[in-house]
Amino acid sequence: MKLSSLSIFISLAIHAALAAPEIKRASSDPILINPPGFPSLPSSRTTKFAPQGATTLNLNDIQGDILIGMTKIKELFFFFSIKDAATFKSKLGSDIHSLVTNTNQLLPGSSNVPVTAVNIAFSNTGLLALNVTDDLQDPDFVSGQFAEAINLGDAGTSNWVPEFAGTNIHGVFLLAASDVQDIDTQLANIQQILGDSITEIYRLSGAARPGNEQGHEHFGYLDGVSNPAVQGFDNGTRPQPTAIDSGSFILGTGKDKGRPDWTTGGSFLVFRQLQQKVPEFNKYVQDNALNVPGLSQEENTDLFGARLIGRWKSGAPIDLAPLRDDPALGADKQRNNNFNYDHPDVPGFDVKSNQTLCPFSAHVRKTRPRATLGAEDGPGDAHHIIRSGIPYGPEVTDAEASSNQSSTDPSLERGLAFVAYQSNIASGFKFIQQSWIDNARFPSPVAGTTGNTTGVDPIIGRVGGSATDAPRVITGTDPLDTNKAFTIDSEFVISRGGEYFFSPPISALSGRLST
Ligand code: N7H
């Protein structure tokens, strides 16, 4: 059994390594990172003339953070409460409106890149504070994230940053620049404009990781490679997968209909502060190194980690590079997202049951199963988000990394300031978290047979939510025996809470929201 699995695995590995690499590096932008492998942003000029037949998005009205992905160098999230609605409204329309950065400004070729990009978004209680009671048609936005903690798999709100536990946060400024000083200057300017009409509730500073880790999250994996291409924005820039209807992300565009007119161009922003236990993750990966013949101990360790994520640290997908990391593939934006887990040209390959190349439990296959459920971008693959977050917190210290400690220093916190944009929270972030990540039976391991359960997402899944701290059991991770179960008895990612926001079109800042 093991021998035949090995030969299937190796023949699939050889098959997957056939296409020739082509590395291109685009020029960098002043306030955005552009690591090799990240999807290219369309140029400011060409996007004004969207390809024929595509939905034309008004990129001058859509706030800049929504479509550009995980590309900021430094970013501050400044959460506030509105104390004096009349003054706030008046300043929003007169001064803040003109500070807010649109999408075109951030795209390559822009002649109007700000020193510090400014975006603003409001919670439901924030809109109510402004006396905006229109139905935005998103019940989760109305409930707020606090009410959802257990539904999202969090252990209640005991681990939450206290400021998120409640509904006091009315809005958030997202400030991005290449330098923290520029962010501080712009924040001081905004605070001076708004005076006592707002009060600070909480702030979180994020930064792209240093040196060669730029673009990688704290566990070390390139993150942001697979954000979907969006019709009317960057369709046609990458070979696969096909661009997604802009209505999945931007209200009032594409297939998204029936919202209040003033919300056209807006998007729902899910914010989560997700702490990462990096030494603990590294130890677990080391302790569970695989035993694939022909690989060194280090390669078997890296392979285990890559099979938890579904990509190597370079960003190369294991579906295309199943044995060893392939940095050239990771850096090649024409190829690193051009896969869907199916291999119709491999005789006998069944995408619904074969997990020798990529486990069903791998984070990227759990969060976007692509062709695993059948036709890609059909009903089973309709739950798309644009991830726009950034790492926060310090690098792992030498003491933490030392072999006898392998645990996070309790005085330090690092993680991902997770940001996801979508036009409907229930079918975007919440669906992915509840129905896929935290669902041990998703995807079904071997269609129509009694294979072992896939398990919850090994990185961010939780069993049962509430107070349960049950160990997580996953399968599929050993390519030689995909039924073998691995038990994960600690959490690598801890939710510190967050909030749901609406990122309005810029025109609404001087229109509906300030009148
Ligand atoms: Fe994930 N990680 O390092 O483990 N994520 N994620 N994520 N994630 C992805 O594909 C990570 C989180 C998605 O289209 C990569 O760009 C970490 C939440 C989706 O193939 C890596 C945390 C949710 C994808 C990580 C975290 C998602 C994705 C590969 C928390 C949604 C795209 C790079 C600390 C509820 C899948 C890439 C696709 C990819 C990591 C959280 C969703 C490396 C550390 C909460 C949809």
From TrEMBL:
Domain of life of the organism encoding this protein: Eukaryota
Per its UniProt record, the required cofactor names are: heme b
The Dyp-type peroxidase C-terminal domain, residue ranges? 230-438
Any single Gene Ontology cellular-component annotation: cytosol
Which keywords label this protein?
Answer: Heme, Iron, Metal-binding, Oxidoreductase, Peroxidase, Signal
* InterPro entries tied to this protein: Dimeric_a/b-barrel, DyP_N, Dyp_perox_C, Dyp_peroxidase
Q: Which residues form a coiled coil?
A: none
- Transmembrane region(s): none
**Listed GO MF terms:** heme binding; metal ion binding; peroxidase activity
Pfam families given in the database record = DyP_N, Dyp_perox_C
DyP dimeric alpha+beta barrel domain segment(s):
61-210
Extent of the signal sequence: 1-19
Which family does the record claim for this protein? Belongs to the DyP-type peroxidase family.
Q: Which PANTHER family match?
A: DEFERROCHELATASE, DEFERROCHELATASE/PEROXIDASE
Q: What name has this protein been given in UniProt? A: Fungal peroxidase
Native species = Dendrothele bispora (strain CBS 962.96)
